[in-house]
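Q: I'm writing up a methods section and want to include an example of the input and output format. Could you take the sequence below and give the corresponding predicted structure tokens, formatted cleanly so I can copy it straight into the document?
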Amino acid sequence: HAGGIEADRTAMARATRDLRYYSARRANAQLIEPSDDTETVRFGGEVTIDREDGRRQTFRIVGEDEADPAQGSVSHVSPLARALMGKSVGDTAMLAGAEVEIVAVG
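A: Here is the clean output for your methods example:
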């Protein structure tokens, strides 16, 4: 039946594409050793910020494939992470035109 063959081709094309993507990502992956630095915002670490409107938010800075802002993880290339990297508790940063203060790093 022709519909079944077409569905199989679509599934195979999707699997092949996913394998190419995975292979490319794996080839470019870099192992990042955990740092003993708990003073500054860094890749793999957590940062807690206070926003001007009173909200306190905690994020973990992760790789692009791991990012899930709804679950509290942001990509290291996101504007939020780029604005905070290398900063320490007490430092401020501008995010989307508003100032935030770093209140914890872990």
